[in-house]
């Protein structure tokens, strides 16, 4: 299931460039517009991602992060105790959480298999700031998998970003909350942040493309 989450989050970001980040005010365009080219990127670079985990990390940084609200997701993981933390504590945890997610995604990108996406019909947007967009993940000879992308609109810029993916009823964000929220309550934010930082610092191969 984690493999599917990571692949799907990557697929919606495949045509971006680190210095050419498109700002999407239409969440359906964010999901649909880039999916086809993202499939091609994963297929073409699968072996390089397999051979070079550091390269896969860099792909995630370049292609995925501009379209995922990792700070909002990090704050959701922290939960109600967020208001009791200093800005420095929040920022440090958000940075560690982002790096943690980079490695989570990149560790499984190369396992992508041949599949196609079927998009749901576009629904007229109202005033909502959070929207769920369902997509079907299809592979011949296998049951379709319904996947829901959860997006949030920035109230100042009106730009939409992904903050969660739900596949077969399982939320990636809720999974991370179940892993970390209890630790934050019992050990404190500083210790959990340090734990993430130490895990993030574990040795990974240096990218051959650098």
UniProtKB/TrEMBL annotation:
Keyword tRNA processing in annotation: no
Keywords (A to Z) from UniProt: Signal
Signal peptide per UniProt: 1-18
Protein name in the entry: ABC transporter substrate-binding protein
Species lineage: Bacteria, Pseudomonadati, Pseudomonadota, Gammaproteobacteria, Alteromonadales
């Amino acid at each position: 299931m984690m493999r599917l989450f990571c692949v799907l989050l990557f697929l919606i970001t495949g045509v971006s460039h680190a210095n050419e980040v498109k700002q999407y005010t239409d969440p359906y365009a964010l999901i649909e517009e880039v999916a086809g080219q993202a499939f091609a990127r994963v297929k073409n670079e699968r072996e390089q991602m397999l051979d070079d985990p550091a390269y896969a990390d860099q792909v995630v940084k370049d292609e995925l992060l501009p379209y995922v609200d990792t700070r909002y997701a990090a704050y959701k993981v922290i939960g109600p105790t967020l208001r009791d933390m200093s800005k420095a504590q929040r920022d440090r945890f958000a940075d560690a959480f982002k790096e943690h997610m980079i490695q989570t995604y990149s560790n499984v990108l190369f396992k992508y298999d041949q599949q196609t996406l079927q998009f749901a019909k576009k629904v007229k947007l109202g005033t909502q700031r959070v929207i769920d967009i369902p997509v079907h993940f299809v592979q011949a000879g296998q049951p379709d998998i319904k996947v829901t992308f959860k997006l949030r609109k920035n109230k100042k810029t009106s730009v939409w970003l992904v903050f969660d993916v739900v596949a077969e009823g399982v939320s990636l964000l809720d999974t991370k909350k179940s892993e970390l929220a209890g630790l934050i309550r019992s050990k404190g934010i500083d210790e959990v942040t340090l734990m993430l930082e130490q895990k993030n610092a574990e040795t990974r191969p240096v990218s051959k493309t650098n």
